[in-house]
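Q: A reviewer asked whether we had any structural model of the full assembly, not just the individual parts. We don't, so I'm hoping you can provide one. Inputs are below.
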Amino acid sequence: MNVKTLFLAGLLLIAAAAPMQAQVRIDGFLQGLYGGRLDNNNPTETEYTASETRMQLRAEHFGENVEFFGRLDFLYDGALEPEYDWELREGYLKFRLGNSFDFKVGRQVLTWGTGDLIFINDVFAKDYRSFFVGRDDQYLKAPQNAMRIEYYNPLANLTVVWSPRYEPNRLPTGRRLSYYNPMIPGIVGTGMNEMFYFEPPLPEAKFKNSEIATRLSRSVAGFNTSLYFYHGFYKNPVGMQMINDSTGMPYYPALNVYGASIRGAVMGGVLWMEGGYLDSRDDPDGDNPLVQNSSVTGMVGFERQIATNLTVNGQWQVDYMLDYDMFDMQQPAGAFVRSEVRHTVTSRVTRLMMDENLTLSGFVFFSPSDEDVYFRFSGSYKYSDELTLAVGGNVFAGEHPNTDFGQFQQNDNLYLKMTYGF
Amino acid sequence: MKTLTLVFALSLLGLSMFSSPAVAQDAAGAEGIMKQAHLAYYYAGDDGLADVTMRIIDKKGKERERQFVMLRLDLEEGGNQKYYTYFKKPSDVSRMTFMVHKSDEGNDKRWIYVPAVDLVKPISADDKNSSFVGSNFSYEDVSGRHWTEDNHTLVQESELDGHAVYVIESVPKVEYGGFAKKVSYIDKDRMLPLKEEYFDKKGTMVKIFRAEKIEDVDGILTVTLRSMEDLKKGGKTYVDFSQIDYNVGLTDDLFTERYLKNPPREFVN
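A: Here is a predicted structure for the entire assembly that you could use as a starting point for your response.
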């Protein structure tokens, strides 16, 4: 038994003992997820996009003025070399100071903004490795170590989130899911060569590299309006650093985001609008071909229940790259180059059937300017209060290998998932 | 989305969790009786909270259960209300919260909070006639259809299970998918509905509501166990209220996004 195993055993013992203390409430789920690739001609090491058993334990305790919540995942992952893993997905204290301040301190999942799977001002870490292989929606959000302070007053509510250590998005690494490498250029995976394992270095662990995200929000005429500011780094490694004259290394360039959103009930549905200015601080003039240019982006969305048990939404996002001419000039010949203005439309359809125990859902991203398509769908049946069975799939149908979703075109997959909640 | 609907629906259920001991003294006509019963049923006290357990039994006898805590604040008698719901069971919805600002002008506002992703979301669900959580209650059944939306006729005074009742027929003023006709049996002494029969356009009875148990809670008569039976599809739902507390001093600020994200533990735990 190694140290990690002992540690896990200890945690399990604590978890098992916890219900004996009346104040601690434990629940969670056990889940099996099995996914296979539809395209077996791919550069990854495995034909399984998922082959895992997961147990999540949740524990909560309410003290006099403080509450604790923990969410701990144990995982057996057999998609590649079989391995055991665990993650503290949440572990925080929540307390109130005076009448106006709420604190949430510790490992936590953070979300704000208005989009449905489109994120402009939500610059909190996402986990696309999970998102693309059929794990539950909650896994799209990667946890961050952070302190969240909320200040409430009648004029406006202010939220400040400070993450001492930068937390990036979790992107496909090339092991389980292949991706586009501009240096080759082409779609690569570790099945071709271990050197394609993709894990860019993080910004140094320095105080100045911590992340600050703030939001100021208030209600105006029944609409929820917010202003946002983020200071940190791009969550995807959209920059390249030269290590020497010939070798480049992806990295996370510095980023500020200034944005605003509004959301409210309109015409029997919900309407939202959000916009942001992404200030690429490492490339303010857009003249560095190795670093993402600044951009201005906005979206509008509407959701409505159009019939009994049938809800539909649509979104349209416009992304305008600044200093585009410079960018365009610097692109290598032959590869697809995005337009100055990129359009993306999305739609989600959710249908409930069989006394709402069966949920059918589809979500599509389509970018006419990038000729890029991503479609995800699932059918989930609640056999009982405890047991849920689900099947689903992810299809990447981009025309080009170097667009947001097109790069994952060899990762189309279907999955089967069983969850037992307790 | 299923969960959203579930939460939405369940919360509306809470709209009907309180009732009162009013007595029909000046019920001049059928509409007066219905109004009085409505206020007794939906607007008891100035605020209230309760633990709610719902059992949904399908036509094959298979049972599902939901548990939640419900807070309610009346802003005006017979008018606007605010609701807050905190889910305990089943496991996949536990700790989710849901809030409704119910407006008598019909433009209710609803929000859900999903703690696993720290997501606050307004909900677009204006189909009041859809069934919720696969239960046998529709939104409208539980959120309280305003008495002014129907024309009421007192058809007879009769007796039901040993209680003297008014039998009142209600027909929607504007055609409505929920029912073409409703027959209510209102307890004369307690001014609470004991039974409601719902009919479709063809005149077939499609579902029955029953007040299964009425108890005195702090001097307020409350339907603590109620059921809805679906005669068309089969199946029945029981809703049980416990730990009921009226006039606990809930304040308006509890029904905001702050508490949606940070449940008020003095009431919800």
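A: Points you may want to mention in the reply: Chain A touches chain B through 55 residues (CB under 8 Å). Residues 393 and 414 of chain A are 4 Å apart (CA to CA).
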